[in-house]
């Protein structure tokens, strides 16, 4: 597990930056005037800024497809595949995908775009803003196997955003159980919503329970907290902190992106 993870990212503390796609066809916020062409232009600009800042990897996600769905609109997944396909020639670092909050759509998108990894909620049962949420890891991993995507890594988010877990076991017990039963390549710990930090207590306790599994902070990592996070976690995923004014829904700010990775580089050295 660890070998595959570190071989892909080439570092013990990878930093994965988000390319938040604009609202896709099928979602209420989709801009019909700028259309797919506009989405590609926006995503390419963010991609260039993040690669210039020397992030270890990037991940495409449909954060703007609000209200979120547990079964993603087929048009949205198809549009995401088209956009990533148009950008493939420009991607120089490992990349992943995530179609919120649908493991099957995420694996399908990862397969057709030849993504290096995917992120999703694959396990658990939750009361959420989207209703009762009960993903099926067994179904998702068999789908991945049947599609021939054996090399694509699976990043399991075990603390769902916008939701309350109906599984009242401690987070550490749930994390250990997921690693034993569901074959993740890494475990992610999140805050309550996008852009909100996971608690350091949760990160520390999960990492202590899983010393041989990569454990990453999934949300809310900021310029002034990333060193503290990396002292415990095996990496992080960052999005909102890199945007203009730190606003999730704005474009990537090239300076904020560079400053973030300068902090990381000094810590690594």
The number of helical segments is 9
What is the helical fraction, as a range of percent?
A: 25-40%
Structural class: alpha/beta
Overall shape: globular
Radius of gyration from CA coordinates: 17 Å
Please give the structural blueprint:
Layout: H1 2-9, E1 15-20, H2 35-52, E2 57-61, H3 74-87, E3 95-98, H4 103-113, E4 117-120, E5 126-128, E6 131-133, H5 137-146, E7 153-157, E8 163-165, H6 171-182, E9 186-189, H7 200-209, E10 215-217, H8 226-232, E11 236-238, H9 254-268
Parallel strand pairs: 1-2, 1-11, 2-3, 3-4, 4-7, 7-9, 9-10
Antiparallel strand pairs: 5-6, 5-8
Describe the model.
This protein is an alpha/beta fold and 269 residues long. The protein has helices at 2-9, 35-52, 74-87, 103-113, 137-146, 171-182, 200-209, 226-232, 254-268; strands at residues 15-20, 57-61, 95-98, 117-120, 126-128, 131-133, 153-157, 163-165, 186-189, 215-217, 236-238. The strands form two sheets. An eight-stranded parallel beta sheet has the order 10-9-7-4-3-2-1-11. A three-stranded antiparallel beta sheet has the order 6-5-8, with no helix packed on it. α2 links the parallel β1 and β2 (57-61). The model has no long low-confidence stretch (mean pLDDT 97).
Could you give a quick summary of the protein structure above?
With 269 residues, the protein is of the alpha/beta class.
What structural keywords apply?
alpha/beta, 9 helices, 269 residues, 3-stranded antiparallel β-sheet, 8-stranded parallel β-sheet
